[in-house]
Every structure is written in structure tokens, then in C-alpha cells.
Amino acid sequence: MHPFGKPLLCGGPRASTTHAARGDGEREILLLGHKRAGYEGGTRGVTARSICFLFCAPVRHRPNPVIMVPSRVGSMAMTTHPHPKAERLVSFLKSHTFFGGLPDAALNTLVARGHTRRYKKGETIFRRGDPGDRLTVIVSGRIKIANVNADAKEVVLNFLEPGDINGEIAVLDGNERSANAIALEDSEILVILARDLMPVLTAHPQAMLEIMQILCQRLRAISAIVEDSTLAMRSRVAKGLLRLAHQHGRTGKDGVRLNLTLSQNDLGKYLGLSRENVSRQLRQLKDTNVIRIEGSQIVISNEASLAAIAESASSN
């Protein structure tokens, strides 16, 4: 069984290749056919008997294939069927990322030239100092972006969820990765090489502008983390939770739920506090009905009170 479908049965198959120009770039057509099938740089004379399987894959990069089958015996009129995985990724980019404003042709190009990878919880996706030649898009799961300080302690800079991107700095300036990325849970990542991404961004300036806006938001968030590190613990926790609510919060009738499943250890690394101090501060906020803790998720039940705690530090 071929991974993309059951081939037509025939004896003595052999493989031959040619290239076909398609709207999403040059692709390689692989024909698995009868050993006596004549094939000389074209599709002429190839019949259902001589073809086991037609498979289109990008000449370079890992495939997001389009399967092609004869529409009638004795003719090479073709019906194309986009692979379900490619359709899923295009739909995801449209509805969950800043790529959604791009035309379908551009999205198809990015998906065709990109590839996906899956990571287990705790697995490192990339490390600081790795080549910055690709943009990553979180398709599923959760990722933390972190560095190690001079005291060999991990400092969490950001948490990423589906639809978020990472690697925009390295892609734009061509330098090495500036931080580590670790999967907080099983995750799927779409990888797009800079050489494939930059022509699309150049042709669609609005998408380039949106990447720059994302970059500015993250720089502001990192500046806030540095400023908050000088605050008392209570105010630091309040400001950190409000920042996470702005980035990852889902507002409902019961309050603002942080759409993150975090251990107190990871939250402490984000706030610059020990796990014990984080636990103590969360308990105090819970006792005063400012937040609720449901499993590994935090729900801000009284956002006004939490903001007042954060503002009290600014006025001191």
C-alpha cells in the first residue's frame, strides 16, 4: 500500500520521472509503470495499464503532494486532487495566522515548499545559535521560548500557541537564533525556509508589515518583563498574569481564562520567581477571589482587582 493511495495493479513496475510546470512551482512527476511502457519525456501513449501510480512532489523539500490520476482510460487528461494535508494547512494559515490576507496562490506556494514536523513534550525545537534560515508556525500544541542566564537558570521569554509564529527576527536579519524553543506539549510545526518566504513577503507588503507589528509587540513584552523584575512579588505576579491574559486570554462569563497549561515552575521562570513564591502568591490571589485555579489553568475572575494590584506598584 502506498502511503497516499492504492496503485493500479500491474506487473514489473519501474520508475521514471519528468517535470511539469504547475501554478505552485515546478514539481516532479513520478510514474510507476509497466516495464514495457514507453516514456520519452512526455505523457503520450501512457495508459491506465502502464501506470501504477502518479505522484507529484516538489523537486526540492519535503512533499505536500498532489495526487493525479487519469480521468479516462487511453487519455492523459488529468484530474488533480490536492492532498488533504495541504488543504488542512492552507485552511489553517487562512483562519489562524497573519498569512490569512494572502491570496490562495501565495498560500499554496508556502505550503508546497514548507514542511511539517512533530515534537514530543519537552523536545527541543531549536536552540540559541542555530541558523536563522526559517520561520516556524505553530499548528498545534504549545511552545515556550527561553534562554539561560549567567547563573545557568532558565528564563522564559514567551509562550506560543497555535497560529503564532517564531523566527521572524532571524528570517529578517539573517542572523542566528536568539533563544531556545521547547515543546510544552506534543506539537506540530510548519517550517517555511526564508528563501521561500521572503519573495512572498516582498510581493505582499501588508504581510511584511504584519510581521513587523508582531515583532514590535514582542519587543514591548520583553521590555515589560525586564521592568517588572524590579517590582515586589505581588505586583510582579499581577502584571505577569495580566500580560499573559492579553496575549493568551479567552474572555467568558466566568472571567478571563489563560489558554495555557502551565506548571508553576514554568510560570516562575516567566515571572522571575521561584516555584515556591509563585505558589504562595497564587494562593493569596485565589483566597481573595481575584483568580481561580482549575487544574493547570488560571482563570482571572476579577480583572479589575488584579489591575489595581499591578497599578499599586506603579504608583509607589
Features:
single chain, 316 residues, alpha+beta, Jelly Rolls, Arc Repressor Mutant, subunit A, 4-stranded antiparallel sheet, 9 helices
H and E order = EEEEEHHEEEEEEHEEHHHEEHHEEH
Question: What is the residue-averaged pLDDT?
Answer: 78
Query: Which range does the strand content fall in?
Result: 25-35%
Main β-sheet, spatial strand arrangement: 1-2-3-4-5
Count the domains.
3
- Shape annotation: globular
Q: Which architecture of the largest domain does the CATH hierarchy give at level 2?
A: Sandwich
Count every helix, treating DSSP H or I runs of 4 or more residues as helices: 9
Could you estimate the helical fraction of the residues in percent?
25-40%
The CATH topology name of the largest domain reads: Jelly Rolls
CATH superfamily of the largest domain: Jelly Rolls
Radius of gyration: 25 Å
The first-level CATH class name of the largest domain: Mainly Beta
Unreliable spans? 1-81
Total number of β-strand segments?
17
Derived structural class: alpha+beta
The biggest beta sheet is recorded as: 5 strands, antiparallel
